[in-house]
Structure formats: structure tokens, C-alpha cells
Design goal:
The protein is built from two helices and ten strands; from the N terminus they run E-E-E-H-E-E-E-E-E-H-E-E. By secondary structure, the protein is mainly beta. Strand 2 and strand 3 (34-40) form a beta hairpin.
Length: 139
Amino acid sequence: MSLSIRNQIPGTVASVTTGEAMATVKVRLAGGQDVTAAITTESVKELGFAEGSEVKILVKSTEVSLATGPVQGLSIRNQIAGTVTDIASGGAMASVKVDVEGGALTAAITNDAVADLGLAAGSSVVALIKSTEVSLATV
């Protein structure tokens, strides 16, 4: 299956915590960073996710925010450090590519945000992704 989702990063399930309707699945990237996905308990069962399962993390680029450093006092579970490798600007929006240990991410943000944050190739950033915006696929 081919998908239009640009952000597809391989990882290994580190833990699964299930509730009545929802579950959190922590996935370890090759670089050692963890990403948390909040998915339905039904999906965990149907897809057979368990500790040690190989998965792909899927995140739309419009669901990736960028900060110039770690952010305190925030409910967003996923803060992934990386380095900007490329910025492609359009009329109002920019596509920012970020190299992270174990993969790469693309963030779709406004040109104003790129300017306000002073982003350029080589900039250190932290990608912020809500756990509810992370989908998982079997490999």
C-alpha cells in the first residue's frame, strides 16, 4: 500500500498500555527516541501490537509543529529533537524537513513561523506531535 503521508518512520514497540477503549503504544526509534501513539484498544488487538513488534509511525506533515528547543508545561507527549535539513517555501506555507535519529520528519508550517523561529538548514529544532495524531502500521 502506498500512502500520501510523508512521515513514515520505522520503530519497535517498547510498551503497550491498554484501557477500556484507548491504548498508548510507545515506539522506540532506531536512534533511541520514543514516540507515543494513542490508538484504540481494538486496533492494538486487531494489528497484534505487542512489545517487540516492528511498526511504522505515520504522521501527516500538517500535524508536526516545530520549536527551537524543548518545551515545558505542555501536554504534547512527543518532543523529538532533530536538525533542519531543507526548507521549501511556497506562497504562504513551507515544508521543513527535519533529520531525527532513526528517521526524518517533514513539518508543514507557515512561512511566518519559519521566519519568526529563524529556521534554516542546520537549525536545531524539536518536533512536537500529539500522541493522538500518530498512527501505526504493521511492517
